[in-house]
Design goal:
Blueprint lengths: L9 H31 L3 H14 L1
Keywords: Membrane, Transmembrane, Transmembrane helix
Length: about 60
């Protein structure tokens, strides 16, 4: 693993920061998907029917 990392200093800090941002973004997006599907419980058929009804009403 130490062969993959650049030497200590600024390059090392940038690699660490980039990795932390990637992990944080992935965690946030995964949590958002779980929240959306578990809390709002979207139902694909209902939303499709609503969309079709609003188009037909126009």
């Amino acid at each position: 693993m130490s062969r993959l990392l650049p030497p200590t200093g600024l390059p090392h800090a940038i690699v660490y920061q980039t990795a932390m941002v990637a992990v944080g973004s992935g965690t946030f997006l995964s949590g958002s998907i779980v929240f959306f599907t578990e809390v709002s419980r979207p139902h694909p058929v209902k939303s499709t029917v609503r969309r079709l009804r609003t188009r037909a009403a126009k």
